What does this fold into?
Amino acid sequence: MRVITGSARGRRLRELEGMETRPTTDRVKEGLFSALQFEIEGRKVLDLFAGTGQLGIECLSRGAAAAVFVDRRPDAVRLIRENLRITELADRARVTAGDALEFLKTLREKFDIVLLDPPYDAGLLEQAVAQLTAFDILNPHGIIVAEHPAGRLLPAVEPPYRVYRTYRYGRIGLTMIRRSADQENEE
It folds into this structure.
Protein backbone atom coordinates (compact mmCIF):
# COMPACT_ATOMS: atom_id res chain seq x y z
CA MET A 1 0.00 0.00 0.00
CA ARG A 2 1.66 3.19 -1.22
CA VAL A 3 0.84 6.89 -1.51
CA ILE A 4 -0.08 7.46 -5.16
CA THR A 5 1.08 11.04 -5.74
CA GLY A 6 2.01 14.33 -4.14
CA SER A 7 4.66 15.19 -1.57
CA ALA A 8 4.70 11.64 -0.11
CA ARG A 9 4.47 9.87 -3.49
CA GLY A 10 5.69 6.29 -3.42
CA ARG A 11 5.99 6.06 0.38
CA ARG A 12 4.93 2.65 1.61
CA LEU A 13 2.32 2.76 4.38
CA ARG A 14 2.11 0.17 7.11
CA GLU A 15 -1.01 -2.00 7.38
CA LEU A 16 -2.92 -3.49 10.30
CA GLU A 17 -2.70 -7.20 11.01
CA GLY A 18 -5.78 -9.41 10.59
CA MET A 19 -8.99 -9.04 8.64
CA GLU A 20 -10.88 -6.49 10.78
CA THR A 21 -9.49 -3.58 8.77
CA ARG A 22 -9.90 -3.74 5.00
CA PRO A 23 -7.72 -1.17 3.22
CA THR A 24 -9.17 0.48 0.13
CA THR A 25 -7.87 -1.31 -2.95
CA ASP A 26 -5.51 0.48 -5.34
CA ARG A 27 -8.13 0.46 -8.11
CA VAL A 28 -10.79 2.08 -5.90
CA LYS A 29 -8.28 4.55 -4.45
CA GLU A 30 -7.13 5.60 -7.92
CA GLY A 31 -10.76 6.08 -9.02
CA LEU A 32 -11.58 8.05 -5.89
CA PHE A 33 -8.66 10.43 -6.31
CA SER A 34 -9.27 10.77 -10.02
CA ALA A 35 -12.77 12.02 -9.17
CA LEU A 36 -11.48 14.31 -6.37
CA GLN A 37 -8.25 15.52 -7.97
CA PHE A 38 -9.28 19.18 -8.31
CA GLU A 39 -11.14 19.29 -4.98
CA ILE A 40 -8.32 18.55 -2.52
CA GLU A 41 -5.72 21.32 -2.48
CA GLY A 42 -6.11 23.69 0.46
CA ARG A 43 -9.11 21.78 1.83
CA LYS A 44 -9.86 20.44 5.31
CA VAL A 45 -10.43 16.66 5.39
CA LEU A 46 -12.12 14.31 7.88
CA ASP A 47 -11.18 10.63 7.56
CA LEU A 48 -13.75 8.73 9.66
CA PHE A 49 -13.21 5.01 10.32
CA ALA A 50 -9.65 5.82 9.21
CA GLY A 51 -8.07 2.36 9.62
CA THR A 52 -4.54 2.82 8.26
CA GLY A 53 -5.17 6.49 7.45
CA GLN A 54 -4.31 5.93 3.79
CA LEU A 55 -7.15 8.05 2.33
CA GLY A 56 -6.55 11.07 4.53
CA ILE A 57 -2.79 10.73 4.04
CA GLU A 58 -3.30 10.70 0.27
CA CYS A 59 -5.28 13.95 0.62
CA LEU A 60 -2.50 15.54 2.68
CA SER A 61 0.10 14.39 0.16
CA ARG A 62 -1.96 16.07 -2.57
CA GLY A 63 -2.05 19.41 -0.77
CA ALA A 64 -4.97 19.30 1.67
CA ALA A 65 -4.54 22.00 4.31
CA ALA A 66 -5.35 19.68 7.23
CA ALA A 67 -6.82 16.27 8.05
CA VAL A 68 -8.48 14.76 11.10
CA PHE A 69 -8.35 10.96 11.45
CA VAL A 70 -10.79 9.06 13.68
CA ASP A 71 -10.69 5.37 14.57
CA ARG A 72 -11.85 3.44 17.61
CA ARG A 73 -9.09 0.81 17.58
CA PRO A 74 -5.96 1.74 19.59
CA ASP A 75 -3.75 -0.25 17.18
CA ALA A 76 -5.22 1.69 14.22
CA VAL A 77 -4.61 5.02 15.97
CA ARG A 78 -0.96 4.04 16.60
CA LEU A 79 -0.61 2.93 12.98
CA ILE A 80 -2.10 6.18 11.59
CA ARG A 81 0.40 8.16 13.67
CA GLU A 82 3.23 5.95 12.38
CA ASN A 83 2.07 6.36 8.76
CA LEU A 84 1.90 10.13 9.23
CA ARG A 85 5.47 10.05 10.57
CA ILE A 86 6.65 7.92 7.61
CA THR A 87 5.09 10.35 5.13
CA GLU A 88 6.25 13.44 7.05
CA LEU A 89 2.67 14.80 7.09
CA ALA A 90 1.97 14.78 10.85
CA ASP A 91 2.26 18.58 11.10
CA ARG A 92 -1.10 19.00 9.28
CA ALA A 93 -2.89 16.09 10.95
CA ARG A 94 -4.83 15.36 14.12
CA VAL A 95 -5.55 11.77 15.15
CA THR A 96 -8.46 11.00 17.48
CA ALA A 97 -9.08 7.68 19.23
CA GLY A 98 -12.74 6.93 19.69
CA ASP A 99 -16.06 6.01 18.17
CA ALA A 100 -16.67 7.88 14.89
CA LEU A 101 -20.39 8.45 15.50
CA GLU A 102 -19.76 9.81 19.00
CA PHE A 103 -17.03 12.04 17.56
CA LEU A 104 -19.56 13.55 15.13
CA LYS A 105 -21.94 14.39 17.99
CA THR A 106 -19.32 16.55 19.69
CA LEU A 107 -17.79 18.10 16.57
CA ARG A 108 -17.64 21.91 16.48
CA GLU A 109 -15.77 22.42 13.22
CA LYS A 110 -16.57 22.17 9.51
CA PHE A 111 -14.84 20.21 6.75
CA ASP A 112 -14.59 20.31 2.98
CA ILE A 113 -14.17 16.56 2.39
CA VAL A 114 -15.34 13.66 4.54
CA LEU A 115 -14.07 10.17 3.74
CA LEU A 116 -16.22 7.26 4.97
CA ASP A 117 -15.08 3.65 4.80
CA PRO A 118 -16.62 1.86 7.80
CA PRO A 119 -16.87 -1.92 8.20
CA TYR A 120 -19.43 -2.91 5.56
CA ASP A 121 -21.71 -5.11 7.67
CA ALA A 122 -21.96 -2.92 10.76
CA GLY A 123 -24.63 -0.50 9.44
CA LEU A 124 -22.34 2.41 10.29
CA LEU A 125 -22.26 3.99 6.84
CA GLU A 126 -25.94 4.90 6.82
CA GLN A 127 -25.72 6.22 10.39
CA ALA A 128 -22.63 8.30 9.58
CA VAL A 129 -24.22 9.84 6.46
CA ALA A 130 -27.39 10.64 8.43
CA GLN A 131 -25.39 12.33 11.21
CA LEU A 132 -23.08 14.21 8.85
CA THR A 133 -26.00 15.70 6.94
CA ALA A 134 -28.14 16.34 10.04
CA PHE A 135 -25.29 18.08 11.89
CA ASP A 136 -24.35 19.86 8.64
CA ILE A 137 -20.58 19.75 9.20
CA LEU A 138 -19.63 20.33 5.56
CA ASN A 139 -18.66 23.72 4.23
CA PRO A 140 -20.56 24.92 1.13
CA HIS A 141 -19.56 22.79 -1.88
CA GLY A 142 -18.23 20.11 0.50
CA ILE A 143 -18.13 16.43 -0.44
CA ILE A 144 -18.83 13.20 1.43
CA VAL A 145 -17.20 10.16 -0.19
CA ALA A 146 -18.67 6.86 0.98
CA GLU A 147 -17.15 3.47 0.12
CA HIS A 148 -19.63 0.57 0.23
CA PRO A 149 -20.56 -2.74 -1.40
CA ALA A 150 -21.53 -2.01 -5.02
CA GLY A 151 -25.06 -3.40 -4.59
CA ARG A 152 -25.91 -1.18 -1.64
CA LEU A 153 -27.73 2.08 -2.27
CA LEU A 154 -27.38 4.82 0.29
CA PRO A 155 -30.55 6.38 1.70
CA ALA A 156 -31.76 9.66 0.25
CA VAL A 157 -30.28 12.84 1.71
CA GLU A 158 -32.02 16.15 2.36
CA PRO A 159 -31.06 19.51 0.85
CA PRO A 160 -28.62 21.19 0.86
CA TYR A 161 -27.08 17.72 0.30
CA ARG A 162 -27.54 15.60 -2.82
CA VAL A 163 -26.16 12.34 -4.11
CA TYR A 164 -23.90 13.50 -6.92
CA ARG A 165 -22.65 10.26 -8.38
CA THR A 166 -21.94 6.60 -7.64
CA TYR A 167 -18.95 4.86 -9.20
CA ARG A 168 -18.57 1.10 -9.36
CA TYR A 169 -15.27 -0.80 -9.19
CA GLY A 170 -16.17 -4.48 -9.31
CA ARG A 171 -17.79 -5.30 -5.98
CA ILE A 172 -17.01 -1.87 -4.47
CA GLY A 173 -19.06 1.30 -4.87
CA LEU A 174 -18.07 4.90 -4.19
CA THR A 175 -20.88 7.38 -3.68
CA MET A 176 -20.21 11.10 -3.68
CA ILE A 177 -22.61 13.33 -1.81
CA ARG A 178 -22.22 17.06 -2.37
CA ARG A 179 -23.36 19.97 -0.24
CA SER A 180 -24.59 22.93 -2.22
CA ALA A 181 -23.85 26.50 -1.25
CA ASP A 182 -26.60 28.25 0.62
CA GLN A 183 -27.35 31.94 0.44
CA GLU A 184 -26.29 32.82 3.97
CA ASN A 185 -22.83 31.31 3.32
CA GLU A 186 -22.45 32.97 -0.08
CA GLU A 187 -22.67 36.53 1.23
